[in-house]
Amino acid sequence: LLFPVSNLCGKCKPRDTDLLQPSLNFLYCSLHQTTPCSQQRAVAVLLSNVSLLELLQKVLECTWLRSPPSEPACLSSEDALLCSGWLLVASLLLYQHRYNTEVHQTLCLDLTKVLNAVIFRKKQPILLLVSILQFLRAVLRQNFSSLLVIVGQNAAQGATQPQPSSLQDAALHPLAMQQVFSLVVSLQNLLVHKDLLLSQAVVACLETLVEYLYVKNQDVALHVASQPWHRFLLFTLLSEGQKSFLQPEVLRLMTLFLRYQSSNIISQKEIRQILQEAAEANLAELPEATSRALHLFLCQV
């Protein structure tokens, strides 16, 4: 089925939402709900379809052209298609790297526009933000080096790359320091919404961002991880009362701050509180996400 569905997608235009949205969802599910052997074949099939990849390029670019809905929570058919497009490309990016699959068509995206879609949200639905964050995390994990997707400043084909304005910008290229801080502040603000799906995506993106920064410039990574605003963010997330320390996103943030030795953010008092709550909890009844986050936290301690 991958052959006819991917070929059908390649013949569509981005405005054909009624046909494209379920088709892209089928391709996405086919990648994730199959055996590793079949997954490798599925990736090869999709990445060999030039028309499909050209369509995905056009779909993603529609993100910059979308009109904000009257209600932020409203997910229009166009926004749903954008979600499917970003999630599918993020998955293809991940699996292309894993299997070193041959690529027949490269996608080019402007990094500034991708970041601005998160930083200046313009009433974007939560699911669209989550989808873009998934993509951003995928390119960060690959250090912006991929055969499938070129993401850079003014990354349109034929455009010249601007020169970094400082030594720090040069070390973080293609990111700039100002973009890093704007993105971190935006991710912090998104966490305050306390939406479970969004929180999971935001914390995962923040983890990957700091890992990327640490490889590029350790001083910058430690500076970002020790920003005082993180402390206020934790107080906000912990305002829900009893057992609030055992929220998965709180545990993962605490683990992140421990990993990068941000003693001004997380103190011995918070560590003792988490250990106390974990000791009193019925571990068998904890949700899987909480158990996994608690395991990582304890290993880090």
From TrEMBL:
Give an example GO biological process. meiosis I
Looking up InterPro entries in the UniProt record yields:
Immune_Signaling-Apoptosis_Reg
Indicate the transmembrane segments per the record. Answer: none
Q: What's the domain of life for this entry?
A: Eukaryota
Name of this protein: MEI1 protein
